[in-house]
């Protein structure tokens, strides 16, 4: 029994201090990953769900390219989920950052359109 406990303790210490486990990838996923507007330049409206996960608990913040302040921060946790309504007309990049504002993961919400923007916005009509 004593040998089993020693082996178990050694295994736990190895797992906790193993750099491969400590440097496991951080994931940041978006759903949906793309929003499609009818015409180029029009705003796309999307209800976006963002999920992230790390291997070690800590303080993390979610930001995106069009905003200086974090969207939301979490303390002493390994994962988080956020659902938000977003209105945009260009690609939006999201970043998960640690307390030192080091980017750990990123993801992109892609903007697409069906029809190109009209080159001639004048209304052309003739009477005859």
Description of the molecule:
- Helix content is 16%, strand content 54%.
- With 128 residues, it is an alpha+beta fold.
- The chain has a single domain (25-115), classed as Sandwich (Immunoglobulin-like), CATH 2.60.40.2550.
- Strands 1, 2, 3, 4, 5 and 6 form a six-stranded mixed β-sheet that branches.
- Strand 3 (44-64) and strand 4 (72-88) form a beta hairpin.
- The longest helix is centred in the first third of the chain and has 16 residues, at 2-17.
- It is elongated, with a radius of gyration of 23 Å.
Question: What labels describe this entry?
Answer:
6 strands, Immunoglobulin-like, six-stranded mixed beta sheet, elongated, alpha+beta, 128 residues
Any chance you could write out the topology, listing elements then pairs?
Layout: H1 2-17, H2 19-22, E1 27-31, E2 34-39, E3 44-64, E4 72-88, E5 92-98, E6 103-115
Parallel strand pairs: 2-6
Antiparallel strand pairs: 1-3, 3-4, 3-5, 5-6
């Amino acid at each position: 029994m004593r040998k089993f406990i020693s082996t178990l303790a050694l295994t736990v210490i190895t797992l906790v201090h193993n750099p491969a486990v400590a440097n496991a990838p951080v994931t940041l996923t978006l759903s949906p990953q793309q929003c499609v507007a009818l015409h180029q330049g029009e705003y796309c409206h999307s209800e976006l769900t963002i999920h992230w996960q790390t291997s070690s608990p800590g303080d993390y913040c979610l930001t995106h390219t069009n905003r200086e302040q974090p969207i939301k921060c979490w303390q002493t946790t390994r994962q988080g989920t956020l659902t938000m309504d977003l209105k945009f007309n260009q690609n939006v990049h999201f970043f998960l950052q640690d307390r030192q504002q080091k980017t750990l993961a990123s993801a992109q919400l892609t903007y697409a359109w069906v029809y190109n923007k009209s080159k001639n916005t004048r209304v052309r009509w003739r009477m005859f």
